[in-house]
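FW: tagging you since you asked about this chain on Friday. Here's the raw sequence from the shared folder, copied in full. Didn't touch anything.
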Amino acid sequence: MFRLTVGLSVLVSLGAIALPPAVAIVHAQMREQGAIAPERVEALARHLNRINARVYSAHWCPHCRAQRAQFGPEDWLVRYGIYLECEPGGEQPASPALCAMNNIQAYPTWKINGEYHRGVISLETLAELSGFGDL
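HL: got it, structure written out here
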């Protein structure tokens, strides 16, 4: 079953990720309003790894880059093994067979607690869906 879950959270620019100007503006505005502490973002990433949550992505996908950017310049999605690359040619090893086995048809697609969620998901919503608690 696929459920569409879309949200907006703090977007942080990664050196290797060029975010569109509109995203940079939103990021700056949200930083002024109070960003989520980096240690809480890392704690969420550790939790997502612990429950075997995964995000199926493609290196050429701008939405995937935006999702990855939410996890800060430390790239917690990759560091904690949550990010799965579905398409060959990116900086991460590709796992097209695993993506096909999970019937991934859109990027990014999250798998959290056995349920699939398409689209960019805010950190707050990821925390809720995964049972992490408050950020």
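FW: Residues 21-34 form the longest helix (14 residues).
HL: agreed, and The chain is about 40% helix and 15% strand.
FW: great, closing this out.
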